[in-house]
Write a structure and sequence with these properties.
Layout (H helix, E strand, L loop, with lengths): L1 H10 L5 H12 L5 H45 L2 H28 L4 H16 L4 H18 L4
Helix pairs in contact: 2-3
C-alpha cells in the first residue's frame, strides 16, 4: 500500500517525498500495520486529529468490509465436510512447517543445546497447561538470566 499512498500524497503535492518517507520511518517504529500507521501520521500531518481519524478509517475500512463479506459467506462453506478435511490437512502442514523452522533455529542458537532442549520441553508443557504466552516469555527470560549469571549456561 505504501507506493499507492506515496503516489496519492506526494503526487498531489500534499507532502514532499522527504516528508512522506520521514513519516514512513516513524510508522515502522510504531506498533501495528505500517500502511495504517502511515495513513494515521499523514492524516494528522495534513488535518490534525480529525484528519488522522479519517485517514485511519480510510485505510482500515475497505479490508474490514471485504473480510466481513467473506466471513458472512464462509459460514456455510466452512461447515462442509470436504472443507473440514482440507483444513485438517492444512493444519498438519502448518505444524510440520513450524517444526522445520524450529529445527532450523535450533542449529543457529549459540546457547548449549541441552538448555535449548530443556526450554523447548518446558515451553511445550506450558502450552499444554495453557499458560499466558507473556508469562512463558517472562519465565524463560528469568531462567536465562539466572543461568547466564551463575555460569550454568555452559
Amino acid at each position: 500500500m505504501l507506493p499507492l499512498i506515496e503516489r496519492e500524497i506526494v503526487g498531489r503535492e500534499f507532502l514532499t517525498k522527504r516528508e512522506f518517507w520521514d513519516i514512513v520511518a516513524i510508522a515502522q517504529a510504531t506498533p501495528g500495520p505500517i500502511a495504517v500507521n502511515v495513513a494515521t501520521f499523514v492524516g494528522y500531518r495534513m488535518g490534525g486529529i480529525l484528519g488522522s481519524v479519517l485517514c485511519t478509517f480510510g485505510a482500515i475500512l475497505p479490508a474490514f468490509i471485504v473480510i466481513l463479506i467473506i466471513a458472512i459467506g464462509a459460514k456455510n462453506f466452512l461447515s462442509l465436510k470436504e472443507v473440514q478435511w482440507v483444513l485438517t490437512g492444512i493444519k498438519s502442514a502448518i505444524i510440520g512447517l513450524i517444526l522445520l523452522a524450529s529445527f532450523s533455529l535450533y542449529s543457529a542458537i549459540p546457547a548449549p543445546k541441552k538448555w535449548v532442549i530443556i526450554m523447548a520441553a518446558g515451553s511445550f508443557l506450558l502450552l499444554i497447561f495453557k499458560i499466558n504466552p507473556f508469562l512463558v516469555i517472562l519465565i524463560f527470560a528469568v531462567i536465562g538470566y539466572i543461568l547466564g549469571k551463575t555460569g550454568s549456561f555452559t
